Amino acid sequence: MPTLAIAGGTSAGLGRAIVTAVISSEQSSWNIVILSRNPSAPLWLRAIDKDGTSAQIHPVNYHCVDSLAAALNGVHTVVSVTSAVDGSQAKIQINLLEAAVKAGCKRFAPSQWGFGPIGSENISVLKWGNEGVWDACVKQKDKIESAKFNIGSFMNYIGHGIYPIPSPTSDEETTLRQNGVAELPQTEDGRWPRISMTSLRDVGRFVAASLDLPEWEEDMTMVGDTLTMGELLTHAEAVTGKKFQVDVIKPRDLEMKLSAQDDFMGLMWAEFKLAYTRDLEDEVVLQPVVNRLCPAIIPMSARQYMEEYWSSV
């Protein structure tokens, strides 16, 4: 059986989604190795792998290529879901790539998991995590196959819920849904822009199915649903039975917000919303590449997501 290594795979978001999908897939024939700074298995992993035979954790030093290469010995595919926020994220991806080449791995996917192929070029807040990473992958293309998994926006942002037991929601988020309040971006001429979204669970399922493909494309883009902001609003009102109070925000408003932001999270959300108003293909509007390559995976739509996880609101 081939071995999949997931760097950062103990995380409760992407790591959990991918590990769970691979373990639960009836078609999967992959061993799993999780690279982590912490050798302890999280509660969610112990719940789905009670005897510890489906996934082994290898403690690593992400800043040491030799440490990573030793952990990747015998691994076929390396998928990274790390999310270092100390400024080292891009360097960690390059270290993982170099270690994968050194260990003789066949495939590598850096931790991108965001907007489409041009998103990382157009949205400055995304550069901290991937600057120089794809250039490094291209330089190693004769030694290892690399791909970017693009997922658009996480559907979970419209209301948390990944697994059968929904994740806790914040009081603020629940209050906004209960009161029917939404801030939505529009284009400057008043049109509702489109948005491509994928749930965490479906990201895991698409990645698990992709492992058995004979070849990867450079952009392994997946789509759960593509709809306009107006359609998203219509679904929200239908599911909750409430007429939402909508605060419309336009590009000029967002540009003013950007100039006034002094914290990273505020800057990030303002840039994301500004990107939505551009309504560009391959930025926030994605092409369903993995959907085409793995047609057996039927993803959840935004309406289905709301119906499942907003039922108590």
UniProtKB/TrEMBL annotation:
It comes from the Eukaryota. The keyword NADP applies. Keywords: NADP, Oxidoreductase. One of its GO terms (molecular function) is oxidoreductase activity. Pfam families: NmrA (PF05368). Residues 4-254 form the NmrA-like domain. Coiled coil: none annotated. This is Pc12g02920 protein.
